[in-house]
Design goal:
Elements lengths: L2 H10 L32 E4 L1 H7 L1 H38 L5 H54 L4 E4 L13 H11 L42
Parallel strand pairs: 1-2
Helix pairs in contact: 1-3, 2-3, 2-5, 3-4, 4-5
């Protein structure tokens, strides 16, 4: 590989991480729904949306903002390292006419080692972002649990359905707002930083039982990432 080819390849390499999440990227707005006339609420049947509860709650909004901060900081770290390698690759390309083939190949190989290390770091950071978000969502889920139970009992529910498994339902059966009101009265934020998976004892997502455990047994489906 010549230094010129290497520089071109490195400049094309992507190192930015993205937040995979329920927070990272809002889904496209749906067209306005036609008004629906509902039948009477079914006695004992209730509906709850974990995703809406997170989006509406103060603590969920805080976690969203904090995740965007963490992703931005991580991308700044990776972009800075990539810029340094790109600059060194271009400098080597500019000097290639003055170097013998052996020296040129040796220095190009050293740059390749650095580029490969950066790609591995980007992959690690991406896994850390995912683990961080999973842990934060798990914390919110655990904090919501008693308010879900309280709203369920107050509404005298006999069964609680996840909103995303119901196509249309009478809003009078939905306990989501009651849960949000409860959690908002308890907490609005909690401190957390990016998980470090390169430390002893750290476990990447998928290497252990799932971190996220949502009320009702269903896991919220995250939207496609960006980067926040």
């Amino acid at each position: 590989m010549t230094a010129k080819t290497f520089a071109a390849g490195l400049c094309a390499a992507a190192v930015a991480v993205s937040g995979s999440s329920a927070f990272a990227q809002a889904p496209a707005a749906a067209p306005a729904a036609q008004p629906v006339t509902h039948g009477p609420p079914l006695t004992g049947v209730c509906i709850f949306s974990f995703e809406n509860a997170i989006a509406m709650s103060k603590v969920g909004q805080y976690v969203d903002g904090r995740m965007k901060q963490i992703v931005s900081q991580t991308n700044a770290e990776l972009t800075g390292e990539k810029t340094t390698i790109d600059t060194d690759a271009k400098a080597l390309d500019a000097r290639r006419a003055t170097l013998d083939q052996g020296t040129l190949e040796q220095q190009a190989a050293q740059l390749q080692v650095r580029a490969n290390a950066l790609q591995r770091k980007a992959q690690l950071r991406d896994r850390e972002i995912q683990a961080t978000e999973q842990k934060a969502v798990s914390r919110i889920s655990q904090e919501m649990e008693p308010y879900i139970r309280a709203a369920y009992q107050q509404k005298t529910c006999s069964i609680l359905l996840q909103r995303n498994s119901v196509i249309i339902g009478n809003p009078a059966m939905d306990i989501t707002q009651a849960v949000v009101t409860g959690i908002d009265g308890k907490m609005t934020q909690f401190a957390f930083d990016r998980e470090r998976l390169d430390q002893p004892g750290a476990t990447a997502p998928g290497g252990a039982p799932a971190i996220v455990q949502t009320p009702g047994g269903a896991t919220p489906r995250p939207a496609a990432p960006t980067k926040k």
